[in-house]
Amino acid sequence: MKTLTLLQTLFSRDFKQYEGVRRINIYLLRLLFTLMFLTYDSWKYIFTHTGPWNTVDAAAWCMWGAYSSMSFIGIFHPLKMLPIVLFDIIYKSTWLIIVAFPLWLNNELAGSPAEYMTMVFSGVIVFVIAMPWGYFFRNFIVPTTSKIQLFKEADPKSK
Fold this sequence. Notes:
Layout: H1 2-11, E1 13-14, E2 21-22, H2 23-39, H3 42-48, H4 55-76, H5 82-105, H6 114-121, H7 124-130, H8 133-141, H9 145-154
Antiparallel strand pairs: 1-2
């Protein structure tokens, strides 16, 4: 009976704390943000790098450092940091489509340098499952009527 109650709680929508997002999504997001924060060694690499930087490599490492730092915020405010999750979904899916898929089609993926990255990036499905898509579209993509009204009121041309 306790298991059933726990499952009902996990999969029920929480309107009080999380604007109708299921608790399971919140817990998965917090787990993902924690893993994103803990598994990126970017700051260690940045601070221990010696010699001159290649500009493209430096930009990539700095971006991953920022990504890791922003993921820390996501542990505590998962719904506010959903654009990071979308970023993760887009770049990993794109890489899988343009790099791994052609190698796989040509039977060249196994044993290639891309094989390990393909295994890691295949975990993007967890991000897709954890993302509360309805909430994301309502709050980040499609403005609500009240938000549209606020923009109209703030626009000096509408007066």
